[in-house]
Write a structure and sequence with these properties.
CATH class of chain A: Mainly Beta
Number of domains of chain B: 1
Strand content of chain A: over 45%
Oligomer: heterodimer
CATH architecture of chain B: Sandwich
Structural class of chain A: mainly beta
Distance between the termini of chain A: 36 Å
Number of strands of chain A: 11
Number of helices of chain A: 0
CATH topology of chain A: Immunoglobulin-like
CATH architecture of chain A: Sandwich
Number of helices of chain B: 0
CATH class of chain B: Mainly Beta
Helix content of chain B: under 10%
CATH superfamily of chain B: Immunoglobulins
Structural class of chain B: mainly beta
Largest sheet of chain B: 6 strands, mixed
Largest sheet of chain A: 7 strands, mixed
Largest interface: A-B, 21 and 20 residues
Shape of chain B: globular
Number of domains of chain A: 1
Shape of chain A: globular
Helix content of chain A: under 10%
């Protein structure tokens, strides 16, 4: 399994500002994933973060809005830039571990943009 | 475009009853996952189904996979209140990218 922590756990931000979310894993992993879960909705994959290369973004998500860093094999950050109320969501990071590549999720960061 | 659909979206059931949640997906995938999410919490892995015909059981929950029909089911036996949560299925494509279903919000009524 994997133990994943995220910071901050929640935040309230003003429109137009940016927030950086940190994700720390207790073991080295090749890929880390960032998801968004809007209120009452399912999870949507934002991007895949590989160490040593640029993140791969899903359709509808761009690097300028959601820059990602992956400085080593246990850590990643996701920045939500120039926020608007529509960015209010839960942001989760996850990693795949084990032969079955089970995805383990962090506790999430609950973001409210006013 | 990959679609992962669940039904029902909302399920209210009496304690002691049985019910099945369905997960349909639109593209070939050899692995399917079921997760549980309690309100305000993150996701907890329940089952990993790796091949056609796979069946796994844990307590009152049993999951199965039919890759030819692109269908997975999560069967609930003799529901209890503790099973109230939102359940998600997810399929995995290349690059270990997960795509989640729409979710089924289950409420078990005493």
């Amino acid at each position: 399994s994997a133990v994943i922590s995220q910071k901050p756990s929640r935040d309230i931000c003003q429109r137009g500002t940016s927030l950086t979310i940190q994700c720390q894993v207790d073991s080295q992993v090749t890929m880390m994933f960032w998801y968004r879960q809007q209120p009452g909705q399912s999870l949507t994959l934002i991007a895949t973060a590989n160490q040593g290369s640029e993140a791969t973004y899903e359709s509808g998500f761009v690097i300028d809005k959601f820059p990602i860093s992956r400085p080593n094999l246990t850590f990643s950050t996701l920045t939500v830039s120039n926020m608007s109320p529509e960015d209010s969501s839960i942001y989760l990071c996850s990693v795949g571990k084990g032969s079955q590549e089970t995805q383990y999720f962090g506790p999430g960061t609950r973001l409210l943009v006013l | 475009e990959l679609k992962v659909e669940q039904n029902p979206l909302f399920l209210s059931m009496q304690e002691g009853k049985n019910y099945t949640i369905y997960c349909n997906y639109s593209t070939t995938s050899d692995r399917l996952y079921w997760y549980r999410q309690d309100p305000g919490k993150s996701l907890e892995s329940l089952f990993v189904l790796l091949s056609n015909g796979a069946v796994k059981q844990e307590g009152r929950l049993m999951a199965s996979l039919d890759t030819k029909a692109r269908l997975s089911t999560l069967h609930i036996t003799a529901a209890v209140h503790d099973l109230s949560a939102t359940y998600f299925c997810a399929v995995i494509l290349t690059g270990n990218q997960f795509y989640f279903g729409t979710g089924t919000s289950l409420t078990v009524i005493p």
